[in-house]
Amino acid sequence: MPKGSEELTQARKEEIINACAELYETKNFKDVTLKDVGAKTSFTRTLIYYYFHTKEEIFLALLQREYEMWIEDLTAIQKKYQQMTANQFADTLAHSLERRSRLLKLMSMNHYDMEANSRMENLIAFKVAYGNSIRAVTSCLEKFFPQMTAADIQGFIYAFFPFMFGIYPYTVVTEKQMEALERSHTNYVCLTIYEITRSMTAKLLQGFDENAKNE
């Protein structure tokens, strides 16, 4: 058992978040309830309420954790490589998001609900993680593409982060959605998370590939 109230609080929060993550693998956001979460933990609903006032706060904490894990991936990329071409960076960044499908799913669904129904201190903690993810991508660009100006990097961020919200719904299509696409004669090309992310990143980095000339 963790010692100290702060460690105990964090351990209990993690147990609740883990239960939410497990439920999210088989249920939609709207179908997950605090009762469901309680059944997956050793806590009563009243005790869960002590740590999270709404299910949206639990999901926001899960989304925050997913961002933090992605930041760790981005930091590892910077440490591992001294230089990268645009194609190499696009490939590596795409693989980093391929491993974070839950992050992309959470980003694309009920984001406003999670933020609107969470207390300010929880929303601030989430925004710190979100801001750090932007800084981590920025740091990668500054290291691997020093020819990019501040405006260039800002342009990449403004394009890439909104794009991330659409990755999951575009790449994960249900049978019902696929049937509707076929019957509506929509020319839909099914791409994986890796494929669509790599393609977008490579396009955004066109013109900033001096490293390729040195190969």
Global structural class: mainly alpha
Work out the count of structural domains.
2
Overall shape: it is globular
Write down the overall mean pLDDT. 93
CATH architecture of the largest domain: Orthogonal Bundle
Number of strands: 0
> The CATH topology of the largest domain, please?
Tetracycline Repressor, domain 2
CATH class of the largest domain: Mainly Alpha
Provide the succession of SSEs. HHHHHHHHHHHH
Low-confidence segments, given as residue ranges, are none
The largest sheet is: none
Radius of gyration: 20 Å
CATH H-tier superfamily of the largest domain: Tetracycline Repressor, domain 2
Helix content: over 70%
Tell me the strand percentage band: under 5%
Count, helices: 12
Distance between the termini: 54 Å
Give a written overview of the molecule.
The chain is mainly alpha-helical and 215 residues long. It folds into 2 domains: 1-52, Orthogonal Bundle (Arc Repressor Mutant, subunit A), CATH 1.10.10; 55-213, Tetracycline Repressor, domain 2 (Orthogonal Bundle), CATH 1.10.357. Helices cover 74% and strands 0% of the residues. The chain is built from 12 helices and no strands. The protein has helices at residues 5-24, 34-40, 45-51, 55-80, 86-98, 101-108, 111-116, 120-144, 150-171, 175-183, 193-204, 210-213. Helix 1 (5-24) packs across helix 2, helix 4 crosses helix 6 and helix 5 (86-98) runs antiparallel to helix 11. The chain is globular and about 60 Å long. The model has no long low-confidence stretch (mean pLDDT 93).
